[in-house]
């Protein structure tokens, strides 16, 4: 085999064709793999050598080992029979965008390092903001704007840091121990981790209890009571994380009512729509974002339900200066005329790391190659499939849809899922129930 050069156009062409064929074959055969890996911990250590090869090996040899040693240890998130967690969508458009991003391989931490990367990100997030009918202050031409983060956890962390620093500039750094953060018992665990990183005391994180009668949404009354108690105790209410589509129960918090409370007390209001935000491009589901105009920040994961390969989490902020003041660093080696002139966006000041990938390419390609109507149809079809699963469940008297106890969590979201996969999954549930209850299938 001819040794691979660091980068050679013809070698790239030849080997990339082989890799694309391998990936396409994987998708053609994905239903033949068990969704959940069947290996035991430490299996791979027994199959691979203890050190890297001294001499180069062929791509074909590596691909064969991927097929025989790596794929058996993969949980196949793109399988049409995958119904766990939330979806992590891939698509042809997302893959092509990811491929192009890897090919260009730039590090776009500031405008000058690759102007197209910064400006495309601004444009594509404005497109998406308009699809979601977000208020003007979240657009790049307003006082805020959007930035692509790696995950919703990163998005939540940076806005929590911005809110913390904003308040501490006003009341003094010694008040850190008095800051209080609010969420619900359905809020994603990333809020707890963000508080740990931001220095918020664990005892000052309020995860307020929700009830089945409110469909597990955060009660404005519970929030008001908690805030009033904290203020009376001499604490400083800092931050509320509301959710549109919680992980455990897909609860939707009442944004408008919660937003008015946060405004009254001067609390930063963040809305996490990592999962369900995608559905809000459909007019019939946009009402779940009613009240978003009250929010200081908002995030949605395009890599969950928007056909954009992981990772791509869109974050919008009402006032970009709060984020920049908290996260900006300007050593001499990063200074340049454009940045010093304050005429451009430098996304290094909107995130934790310095380096950043050209993520906007894949989101741009998803929007262009599918178009809004096809994306809406994709989401509506998944909702239809979920409704069909509920209908199947209703036909078997041994099952019921419950609130309060979650017996079964079933999420439709994989790109290849069809009605036959829903039906097959339901038969597995019935067989398991029959085994447990020693009854026959209806």
Automatic annotation (TrEMBL):
Pfam families: Pyridoxal_deC
Superkingdom, natural source: Eukaryota
InterPro entries linked: Aromatic_deC, PyrdxlP-dep_de-COase, PyrdxlP-dep_Trfase, PyrdxlP-dep_Trfase_major, PyrdxlP-dep_Trfase_small, Pyridoxal-P_BS
Keyword tags: Decarboxylase, Lyase, Pyridoxal phosphate
Cofactor(s) annotated in UniProt: pyridoxal 5'-phosphate
Signal peptide from the UniProt entry: none
GO biological process, one term: amino acid metabolic process
MF (Gene Ontology): L-tryptophan decarboxylase activity; pyridoxal phosphate binding
Residues annotated with N6-(pyridoxal phosphate)lysine modification: 304
Gene3D superfamilies, alphabetized: Aspartate Aminotransferase, domain 1 (3.90.1150.10), dopa decarboxylase, N-terminal domain (1.20.1340.10), Type I PLP-dependent aspartate aminotransferase-like (Major domain) (3.40.640.10)
Keyword Lyase tagged: yes
GO annotations of cellular component type: cytoplasm
Entry similarity comment: Belongs to the group II decarboxylase family.
Protein name (database record): Tyrosine decarboxylase
Organism: Ambrosia artemisiifolia (Common ragweed)
């Amino acid at each position: 085999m001819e040794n691979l050069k660091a980068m050679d156009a013809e070698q790239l062409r030849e080997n990339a064709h082989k890799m694309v064929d391998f990936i396409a074959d994987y998708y053609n055969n994905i239903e033949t793999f068990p969704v959940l890996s069947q290996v035991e911990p430490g299996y791979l250590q027994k199959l691979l050598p203890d050190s890297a090869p001294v001499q180069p090996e062929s791509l074909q040899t590596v691909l064969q080992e991927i097929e025989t040693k790596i794929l058996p240890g993969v949980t196949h998130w793109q399988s049409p029979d995958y119904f766990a967690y939330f979806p992590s969508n891939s698509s042809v458009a997302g893959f092509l965008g990811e491929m192009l991003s890897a090919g260009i391989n730039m590090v776009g931490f500031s405008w000058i390092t690759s102007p197209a990367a910064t400006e495309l990100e601004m444009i594509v997030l404005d497109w998406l903001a308009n699809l979601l009918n977000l208020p003007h202050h979240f657009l790049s031409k307003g006082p805020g704007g959007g930035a692509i983060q790696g995950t919703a956890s990163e998005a939540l962390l940076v806005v929590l840091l911005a809110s913390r620093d904003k308040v501490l500039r006003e009341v003094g750094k010694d008040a850190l121990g008095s800051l209080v953060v609010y969420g619900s018992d359905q809020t994603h665990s990333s809020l707890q981790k963000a508080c740990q990183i931001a220095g918020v005391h664990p005892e000052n994180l309020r995860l307020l209890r929700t009830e089945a009668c409110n469909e597990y949404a955060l009660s404005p009354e519970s929030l008001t009571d908690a805030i009033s108690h904290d203020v009376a105790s001499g604490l400083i209410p800092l931050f509320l994380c509301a959710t549109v589509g919680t992980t455990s129960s897909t609860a939707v918090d009442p944004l408008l009512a919660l937003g008015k409370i946060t405004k009254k007390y001067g609390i930063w209001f963040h809305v996490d729509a990592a999962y369900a935000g995608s559905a809000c491009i459909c007019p019939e589901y946009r009402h779940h974002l009613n009240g978003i105009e009250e929010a200081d920040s908002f995030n949605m994961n395009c890599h969950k339900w928007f056909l954009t390969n992981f990772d791509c989490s869109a974050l919008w902020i009402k006032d970009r200066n709060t984020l920049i003041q908290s996260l900006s660093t300007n050593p001499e080696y990063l200074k340049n005329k454009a940045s010093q002139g304050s005429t451009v966006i430098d996304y290094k000041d909107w995130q934790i790391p310095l380096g950043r990938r050209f993520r906007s390419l894949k989101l741009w390609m998803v929007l262009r190659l599918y178009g809004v109507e096809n994306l809406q149809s994709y989401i509506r079809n998944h909702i239809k499939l979920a409704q069909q699963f509920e209908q199947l469940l209703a036909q078997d008297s041994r099952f019921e849809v419950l609130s309060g106890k979650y017996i079964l969590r079933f999420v439709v979201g994989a790109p290849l899922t069809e009605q036959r996969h829903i039906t097959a999954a339901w038969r597995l549930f019935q067989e398991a129930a029959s085994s447990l209850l020693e009854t026959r299938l209806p």
